[in-house]
Design goal:
This protein has about 200 residues and is α/β, with parallel strands linked by helices. It has helices spanning about 5-15, 20-35, 35-50, 85-95, 125-130, 145-160, 185-190, and strands at about 55, 60-65, 80-85, 100-105, 135-140, 165-170, 195. The protein has a five-stranded mixed beta sheet.
């Protein structure tokens, strides 16, 4: 549609999740109209994020250090591990201020159509963490969609032989939705009403 680099910018912006062609075009023209210092600041932040942010070596959460702030917090209990798909799900759960345990980020969910199998997720690392014997409960806080349900079923079968209580968040979360879109009250009720798998 547009010449050269402007179309390249629109195309790259359109690759971001939730950004369609019209939104990509609006953002591109906003950036073209913005003052140079604002655009440079955005570019610097993007480069800095890619250079400095990593994933916690324990739980897989985003972190600026080898271990995230949750894994280094001595007030948290090792007895309960809450398994989530992505780091953004931790933020959603932390908003309710009900959970005082640890987290484990899988890095996605089982999705055979999308080519994501159990070996593509951080399931081996979860099993290693559970080998210490400190954990007594694993909460499966996965998105209530087909992929989340498949992952929960797989993990519950895998964790079944271990002497653990395996729970799943209760209903109240919309089917086909994402945890980070749930309001705090709905997520809080679902969290408190979790059930054994």
């Amino acid at each position: 549609m547009y010449e050269g680099i402007v179309q390249d910018l629109i195309d790259e912006l359109g690759k971001l999740p939730g950004i369609g062609p019209k939104s990509a075009q609006r953002i591109a023209f906003h950036l073209l109209d913005a003052d140079e210092s604002s655009v440079r600041r955005l570019a610097d932040v993007l480069v800095t994020v890619k250079d400095t942010v990593r994933f916690c070596e324990v739980c897989g959460n985003v972190s600026a250090d080898e271990k995230c702030r949750i894994c280094t917090d001595t007030r948290r209990s090792d007895e309960v591990i809450c398994v989530v798909e992505e780091s953004k799900d931790i933020v959603a759960i932390e908003k309710i201020r009900e959970f005082k345990g640890r987290y484990h980020v899988l890095g996605g969910a089982i999705d055979p159509i999308g080519g994501v199998g159990p070996n593509d997720l951080r399931i081996t690392q979860l099993m290693s963490r559970l080998g210490s014997g400190e954990t007594t409960e694993v909460i499966l806080a996965l998105d209530p969609n087909i992929e989340g349900e498949a992952t929960a079923a797989y993990l519950s079968r895998l964790l079944g032989p271990l002497e653990l209580t395996v729970t799943r968040l209760a209903s109240g979360l919309p089917v086909g939705g994402d945890l980070d879109y749930a309001d705090e009250m709905t997520l809080g009720r679902a969290f408190l009403g979790r059930r054994t798998v």
